[in-house]
Amino acid sequence: MGKNIVLIGFMGTGKSSVGMKLAERLNRKFVDMDREIERVCGMSVSDIFRRYGEVRFRSEERLMAGKLARQTGLVIATGGGVILADGNLEALQKNGTVINLEAKPEYIFQRVNRKKGTRPLIKKNITVEDIKEMLQHRQPLYQQAEVIVNTNDKGVDEVVEEIIAILRSRGELPGRQDSGKCEK
Ligand code: S3P
């Protein structure tokens, strides 16, 4: 089985929708880290934050990153804060290609506002300036990814095809013409 494909990036950059579609296209198993943490803990990410605090969530996130990093052939959508703790990215990079989905703050603002109330770190009256501030702090961490894909003004399918083309050009996926056929 090939390396994992690991999507990182700020909240609202499309990691989950792109990851799901990418896995479908590549016929791979898709794992959404937040959903998996929710399954293991038996409660939503919002409830983990509310009842036990961010520190507890980060600890669950670190355990999950370690667990997934020991598997292969997955498409993984991480939570936006996976880059914050030392060691998570390193673990995921060992047998995975880490791809950062980038988007401009205005675009992120629109995306996170459409799903208000589902993200504990996004307060009700969040502004573009708040997002810029968080991004400024996190940007150097996201930029440790081997591949950076800009998602501004692109649909999910477009981003998925771009990722597939990049992975093919890196020799990490079979090219269209050599999918399963043996030439003499
Ligand atoms: C977080 C992002 C969320 C989720 C948690 C913390 C972050 O995931 O893991 O609320 O710190 O950026 P999404 O990026 O899928 O929203």
Model description:
This protein is of the alpha/beta class and 184 residues long. The chain has one domain: Rossmann fold. Helices cover 49% and strands 13% of the residues. The chain contains 8 helices and 5 strands. The protein has a 5-stranded parallel β-sheet with strand order 2-3-1-4-5, with helices on both faces. Helix 4 packs parallel to helix 5. The longest helix is centred in the middle third of the chain and has 16 residues. The chain is globular. The C terminus is likely disordered. Shikimate-3-phosphate binds next to helix 1.
Query: How do the helices and strands follow one another from N- to C-terminus?
Result: EHEHHHEHEHHEH
Largest sheet: 5 strands, parallel
Task: Evaluate the radius of gyration.
Answer: 17 Å
Question: Which structural category do the helix and sheet elements fall into?
Answer: alpha/beta
Helicity range: 40-55%
Q: Report strand order across the widest sheet.
A: 2-3-1-4-5
Give me the CATH architecture, please: 3-Layer(aba) Sandwich
Model regions low in confidence, pLDDT < 50 over at least 5 residues = 177-184
